[in-house]
Each structure stands twice: as structure tokens, then as C-alpha cells.
Amino acid sequence: MRVLAIIPARGGSKGVPGKNSKLLGGKPLIAYSIEQAIASNSFAKIIVSTDDEAIAQIAIDFGAEVPFIRPSELANDTASSIDVVQHTIGFLASKNEFFDAVCLLQPTSPFREKGFITKAISKFSSTDSDALVSVLPVPHEYNPHWIFQADTSGMLQIATGDKEIIKRRQELPQAFFRDGAIYLTKLASIKKGTFYGEKLSYIESNPYLYVNIDTMEDWIQAEQKLPTILSLI
């Protein structure tokens, strides 16, 4: 399977200004994802999609390719990740470069366990799925079968549509949330505008490594966690 790694890294960021080039543990945030992609030895190409010349140079310095500067209309707050990925594969297709699948590695989830990318691609390749995402278990108190939502009359209903609450924690079905570390998707689904397709498989991340950097509080958490996890990533 010929897999393209795409690392999206626009210059603008409101929660953490300049976060993709901001130093975390002495190196730019984006460098973690680039280095992990290279170390996995799993990709036909590793592309950084950015609108920022400084980020582009950092990406090149750390070993990624930056074959274009992302158009401004794909670098604002309303641009979606799927648009960015479609733009990248379209650009490469125009250069007669084609792939079977895309792996999206978000810089905001910089801590991936050694071998995790390789393990994810191996599982994805061996299953009849359209896509694979990395996940973490939902704590039982937040399981959707125990969550309520308000209806139009202001009354609470079980979010899943169940008529009766599941009484015992042990009877709750397992639930997961996307942790943002890996999105693997076959090209056919990307072209349809989805990262998930119809058949979605998953791989569980190491919960100790979880951080998703969107705010300064998240950044501080990442700084505090980094010294204790360097041997794992």
C-alpha cells in the first residue's frame, strides 16, 4: 500500500499564537510529527501543507517535503482538514504522483508512541476498512448511554435514544473518542469528502501520552508531560 503522510500546519493560530513553529522541549511543535513519520519508514512521501514560509523552512529542515505553499483560502478558520488533504492529493496527482491512502498527522497531537504509526498502518492494511482512526476509551461516566440531552420541550432524554438507563457500569458498551493522533483513509473515501468512509476501524493510543494542543493550558500540559514521556515517543 502506497501511503502519503500529510502534516497540516497553517501559520495562524488563535489559541496558541504561532504554535506549529513554537518550541516545545527545544524543537518546533511540527518537528515531532515529522520525525515520527520519518522514523516509521512507512510512507512514500511526507508532505507538510502550510501557508507560512517560516513553517515551510522548518519542515524542510526536519526532513519533510513542502512542494507548494497552501492557498490562503485553505488557511483560514473555516477551511476544513478534508479540503486541505484534497488539495494536496490533487496537486500531487497533477505531477503524476498517486497514492492508495492518506495518513493525516496533526501537529497538535505530537506524542505518538514509538512504532505506533507502523502498527496503525499494518492494522489498516490487514483489514477490509475504508479508514482507521486512533482513539482512547471514553470514561464510563461519559458513556453516551449515560449522557442526557434536552429535547425541544426542555425535558432530558438519553442521548442514545434508549428508553431505560443502563444501570450497571459493567453492562455499558465500550465507547471511544478520537484522540487526533492518526487518521488513515483510502483515497476513494478522501475523494468523497470523508476521513471515515463506511467501514471505520480503530487503534487505541497510549492514554499516558494524550495531549491535544488547542489552548495555552494544553501547551502547558504538554510541556509538563514531555520530560516524563521522552523515552516513549
Topology overview:
Layout: E1 3-8, E2 23-24, E3 27-28, H1 29-40, E4 45-49, H2 53-61, H3 81-94, E5 101-104, H4 116-126, E6 131-137, E7 148-150, E8 156-158, E9 176-186, H5 187-191, E10 200-204, H6 216-229
Parallel strand pairs: 1-4, 1-5, 6-10
Antiparallel strand pairs: 2-3, 5-9, 6-9, 7-8
Question: Care to describe what's here?
Answer:
- A six-stranded mixed sheet has the order 4-1-5-9-6-10, sandwiched between helices.
- With 233 residues, it is an alpha/beta fold.
- Helix content is 28%, strand content 21%.
- It folds into two domains: 3-136 and 176-229, Alpha-Beta Complex (Spore Coat Polysaccharide Biosynthesis Protein SpsA, Chain A); 139-174, no CATH class.
- It has six helices and ten strands.
Average pLDDT, all residues: 95
What is the H/E order?
EEEHEHHEHEEEEHEH
Q: What amount of the residues lies in strands?
A: 15-25%
Fourth-tier CATH superfamily name of the largest domain:
Spore Coat Polysaccharide Biosynthesis Protein SpsA, Chain A
CATH architecture of the largest domain: Alpha-Beta Complex
| Form type | globular
The number of helical runs is: 6
Q: Major sheet: size, sense and barrel closure?
A: 6 strands, mixed
Helical content (DSSP H or I, runs of 4+)? 25-40%
Helix and strand composition category: alpha/beta
How are the strands of the largest sheet arranged? 4-1-5-9-6-10
